[in-house]
Amino acid sequence: MATTLRDILDKLLGRQPASAKTARERLQLVLAHDRSDLSPELLDQMRREIFEVVAKYVEIDIEGGDVSLETEDRMTALVANLPIKRSKSKAVSSQEMAISSQEKAVSSQEKAVSSQEKVSNSQESVSTPGAME
Amino acid sequence: MAPTTRTILICSGKGGVGKTTLTANLGIALAKLGVHTVVLDADFGLRNLDLLLGLENRIVYTAQEVLSENCRLDQALVKHKQEPNLSLLPAGNPRMLEWLKPEDMQRIGAMLAKQFDYVLIDCPAGIEDGFKNAVAAAKEAIVITTPEVSAVRDADRVIGLLNTHGVHPVQLVLNRVRPKMMANQEMLAADDVTDILALPLLGLVLEDEQVIVSTNRGEPLTLSANNSPAARAYSNIARRLQGEDVPLIDPAKEGLGLREKVWRLMQTKIF
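Predict the joint structure of the above. Result:
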């Protein structure tokens, strides 16, 4: 989240942050749940089961782990962040690594796409005044 | 016969965000641009479109008599006196809701599409049967919302349903915008709402007391040469629908006093 002068001032004065920011954050959370049609109970159950499955193969840090819903552009994603303490066997661990690196590749691809979009947007805005000359 | 008739559902999910006001003003504004427009009141339970257009005393037949073939379509259509390019097909009796089916609305929509360039459907609030009936007749949609969490959340539900019904394109109108509150970051910004809902912004309507005055009179703001902010916004929406490139207003530029300038500096992202 970007920080603004207002955010700093709010913190210094111990004031509540501007309510638009709160509204945005609350909406993003509630919409992720609305769109997935998952109740908090179901999400919690799924989280536990995911931990169980992963724990069969690797030792994970359950305290530091998190499974949550994120939403962007009407796409809701289930995001699991499971810190691995140590793999249980070498063979499994290399597989796991392969999977997680694949996942990372996908997410970095997505990021590449979104940054490309941003680049093309800014190009557009740059080229418009040029076209007008 | 108009082969390129645009049948547009005007919906919001939440009640009281400005569906009917938008339908009435957009209907008049489109008619003024010279296109044959009909507004269909699909809110059979709580009809109000006739009242906002000032046509409540001229209703003889309604969609109900048309569907039951007790009258012809042209007998039920109420032509606006000052703006004859606009007609209203009034909602029937609330008892219609007991038997009305999505196919009935499709029939009405098809009948209207033969005669008009634009069919604007004023959708009831909610996402139940009234919405399902209305959406059946629609090809595209305008979702109207206000920058409030409850309205945006309900709009999101409606957008999901529009997607499943194959309605496309879906565009957004942001209503009751208060520039000062937005500048103070005490109201969701237009970008926040379009990002969250992932819809293109068709129009931005400022909070405007003249809207209440116009509903009191039954004369939509776009009818007269009224130059209030909301009147301009509604006319611009009509022009954009017609393919004209009309820039959106920037709420941040609506007030440019020292206070606004300071607030703008305060919201600049520094890291």
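The first helix of chain A runs from residue 5 to 13.
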